[in-house]
Amino acid sequence: MGLIAKRAAGKIHFDRVVIETSGIADPGPIIHTLGTDYQIAQAFRLDGVVTLADAATGMKTLNQQLEAVHQVAMADVLILSKTDLIEPFDLSRFEKRLKELNASAQHILAHHGSVPVGTLFGLSAMRSGVTSSEVDSWLGMATEVNKPDPLADLSGFSAKPKVTTTFSPSVPTKHQQHDHRVSSASIEVTEPIPANVFDFWLDTLIALKGANILRMKGILHVEGLQYPFVFHGVQHIFDAPVPLKNWPGKDTTSRVVVIARDMEETDLKAGLEMLLLRTEEGAASDALPAGMMAETIEMPF
Prior knowledge:
It is a single chain. It is built from 11 helices and 11 strands. With about 300 residues, it is α/β, with parallel strands linked by helices. Helix 4 crosses helix 5. The longest helix is centred in the last third of the chain and has 15 residues.
């Protein structure tokens, strides 16, 4: 809180705050605090989670530490380091495991510990005026910018099917019990979604599995509205949805990414497919989706 007070008094100036955890830390409580602490939520918003994945020791760490699995699963960006210290076959196995844990994160290869600074910031699409390419990048649909990179085509979304649902493999080896506890899924719905369908889906998911939702983010096109919303949440806490009133083009595809702990793949699949339901009273008003506003804190962004 001292930073907020000093900035308000004009004693210091800064554009962003970088939180670097020490050791193996679960990012979940930090993200949760950013959304639930009123003073912090009024002054700051989450830009993104960046996880450093050590290719030399990463497999062992994932085997031993559930927190490390959470770091990978909740990341917006995964930076692979020390890739020159292992054999290509071992690197490909490590890359495959990262993809299974989090198919929507951007992947960047560090070259002797260096990455372009611009790839670490400006990650969130939770702001007005965001472009379609920035939303794609946030949801893991963008083409990787740091080539050559063997982690190509990691989006978790298929090229252009009418409706796509993807799930990470859930059959662990004896050394991957922690991986088995975390699953990720994504869905595309090409037609605008009735507001009451989305509200019912979100309320049901939070009521049944809210404590196990590590992260959820997406872009939502609501029936009756000319512009979409972007949203982001952890467990049952959601940032205030951001309307994209200047959304370009005629694409009405909604995209949702869910990363959860201790949820069966079939449950996650069935839950996401509820978004495909159609109802006779699905028209939306100009109001934000009511089910999302019940657990949000207004943010000045």
